[in-house]
Design goal:
Layout lengths: L9 H12 L4 H16 L3 H15 L4 H14 L4 H6 L1 H7 L5 H19 L6 H16 L6 H4 L7
Helix pairs in contact: 1-2, 1-3, 2-3, 2-4, 3-4, 4-7
The chain binds 2-acetamido-2-deoxy-beta-D-glucopyranose (NAG) (2 copies).
The site of one 2-acetamido-2-deoxy-beta-D-glucopyranose has 4 residues, from loops.
Main location: membrane
GO biological process, one term: vesicle-mediated transport
Keywords: Membrane, Protein transport, Signal, Transport
Length: 158
């Protein structure tokens, strides 16, 4: 339904996605994950908060596969809303080992950015050089500075 690029139905799709996000079925919740970036692509300001709220719900999901997909949605829709990560940080850390491979990579990137944003880096940290690499890469790619994850473009395919 979200595939139909009609702004008129966007609010309906958003409501449906919110319902799906609370559905007992893992498969349905995962579908909500994949609908959100498409909804976000419509660039309707009034939907932004709603979309981010649903991503917050899905990041806190009990199923690792839903969390993995939510991480992908997060990095394509609102990579800078780290308060969503902070709220669910403990849960995300716990679920990380069980997320499937690709979702795991995305999620590690998100958690890393959260920790760095929150605590900064000590010069001696091994992460310091890694962080430098990220910056270097996003400059090179001339993309927006906010997300190394977006540089991959992988989330766009969802
Ligand atoms: C982050 O998302 C939440 C939705 O749960 C929203 O209330 C908040 O305004 C967002 N913050 C930013 C900085 O976009
Ligand atoms: C995450 O889910 C648990 C129940 O599974 C709930 O107790 C908790 O309040 C939720 N946290 C957030 C930030 O929504």
């Amino acid at each position: 339904m979200a595939g139909i690029r009609l702004h008129v139905i966007a609010p309906l799709v958003l409501v449906a996605a919110g319902k799906c996000a609370r559905d007992p079925s893992v498969y349905v919740r995962k579908c909500a994950d994949s609908v959100l970036p498409k909804l976000h692509d419509l660039r309707l300001e009034e939907n932004t908060v709603g979309i981010e709220e649903i991503i917050g719900i899905l990041l806190n999901d009990s199923s690792p596969c839903v969390v993995g997909a939510a991480a992908a949605a997060f990095s394509s829709v609102c990579p800078n809303n780290l308060s969503l990560v902070g709220r669910n940080y403990k849960r995300l850390r716990e679920v990380l080992p069980d997320v499937e491979e690709w979702g795991k990579i995305v999620l590690i990137g998100i958690l890393l950015r959260y920790v760095v944003a929150r605590h900064g880096l000590v010069k001696e940290s091994i992460m310091f050089s890694l962080h430098g690499t990220w910056n270097h890469r996003s400059e090179k790619d001339c993309s927006d500075t906010n997300s190394a994850l977006d540089d991959n473009g992988n989330n766009r395919s969802l």
